[in-house]
Specification:
single chain; globular
Length: 395
Amino acid sequence: MNTSASEARAVEPPFDAAKLDRLMEEAGIDVLLATSKHNTQYLLGGYKFIFFAAMDAIGHSRYLPIVVYEKGSPDHSAYVGNRMEGGEHQNNPFWTPAVHAATWGTLDAAALAVEHLKKIGKAGARIGIEPPFLPSDARDLLASRLEGARFVDATHALERLRAIKTPQELEKLKLASELITDSMLATIAVAREGSTKAEIIERLRREETNRGLHFEYCLLTLGASHNRAASPQAWAKGEVLSIDSGGNYHGYIGDLCRMGVLGEPDAQLEDLLAEVESIQQAAFAKVKAGAAGSEMIAAAEKMLKSSPSAAFTDFFCHGMGLISHEAPFLMTNHPVAYEGVDADRPLEAGMVISVETTMLHPERGFIKLEDTLAVTNDGYEMFGNRGRGWNAGAV
């Protein structure tokens, strides 16, 4: 299905177009070709094609959605999608004036993008691309057919565009966090002596799915082990359980960690989790719009250094949204490979951050809390704010 700009009605973009125009100007980009599923979803106002939600591969190629956006000219925008997306457009029209639902792979998608760029007079422009999300064959085709064009990395501009969440996005992130918390607490409550890691993970998958989440992963430890991969290891009396899960609600990620124990926690366990909690609270106390992210990190690290378990405990924080590590970028290569370019910049209301403290105790095992905070003007709102103590397994 092809819809030309002259045939489609003009529709306002479902994002802050003025902000995107400014970011593109700063990056030296005339026209954008967004090709990642998270950024095409964002630029399309939340739309993601269900047929390729789990896997991109088909036949000899893969699904490659493309949103074309010209700086200052949203009326020149286009969406290049799979042939089956014509039905999606008929039921809920895409906002872009041009829609090309006609592709089955990367090369035909790139060719349609080239045709559109030529039509709007931008074949030799500065073209913003997402290098990690543009297949090599598609990029080669673009380069061969767009003589005089210069390709510019648009990754940073798109990250900045998504950094401040709208109220609708915040509601989805909150719901994702709440549903994951409910799922983890329900899973811990029914796990019992002899329950294996593989069984507990499968139970969590079903709990999340039944609540309307798309299950992403579960990292689980039992007892003294620090190994978070699925295995036949069984839960034993007196042992701890660490359950860290990511679930997806309409494209938005919830990512939290909670603790369980099979039986009553002893005094040592109470003290160890209290150490983790004190580090979390030190970080929370510095979160508000206008405060630098480095203030939160410094407060947490100061508390960490005074902890009796400092030698085997770590603090980390990162941005959250459509992907699990996005702006604000607060810590460098810790552990994900990127620069903490936002550490000294003020936090802004609407940013969402994950705050996590991990203790790898040599005898009692993996003890961790991970929480999700939405930055507000006077502080923060925590999503999924329950189950942060010791949660008992089934007796």
